[in-house]
Amino acid sequence: QVQLQESGGDSVQAGGSLRLSCTASGDILSTYCMAWFRQAPGKERELVANTYTRGGSSSYADSVKGRFTISLDNAKKTLYLQMTGLQPGDTAMYSCAAGGIWMCRLASEYNFWGQGTQVTVSS
Q1: What residue ranges of the chain have pLDDT lower than 70?
Q2: What does the angle CA 34 – CA 37 – CA 43 come to, to the nearest 5 degrees?
Q3: pLDDT score, position 102
């Protein structure tokens, strides 16, 4: 059983940076992917970035490419999302997830979720 806990969300000015962390208990290597999702009020939950737990490529939403970086420290059982050049459009609740079946793009593919951490970007 994998349990996830996010931290690092904050309120920042446009152009600022934040690093989100997701600490895990349990065997994350038993999962296929880990990911960051976000959901803003009135919008669908969207995949921000994902990565394979046993190595491999990472994927990013077009809206965050070049600004966000996902990384996984297996020794610390911690997933990170480094966010730079934050924009008001990045304002959302960010959640980490573990699981995945195939391409690891859909929320329905993940079976373990954290509670979320709020990121607010002011113009």
Answers
A1: none
A2: 160
A3: 79
- The per-residue pLDDT for 109 is 93
Residues 6 or more apart in contact with residue 25 via CB below 8 angstroms: 2, 3, 77
- At 56, list the tokens: 């491999």
Instruction: Reduce the secondary structure of the chain to three states and give it as a string.
Output: CCEEEEECCCEEECCCCEEEEEEEECCHHHCCEEEEEEECCCCCCEEEEEEECCCCCEEECCCCCCCEEEEEECCCCEEEEEECCCCHHHCEEEEEEEECCCCCCCHHHEEEECCCEEEEEEC
Torsions phi, psi of 90, nearest 5?
-85, -5
Tokens 């904050």 belong to residue: 10
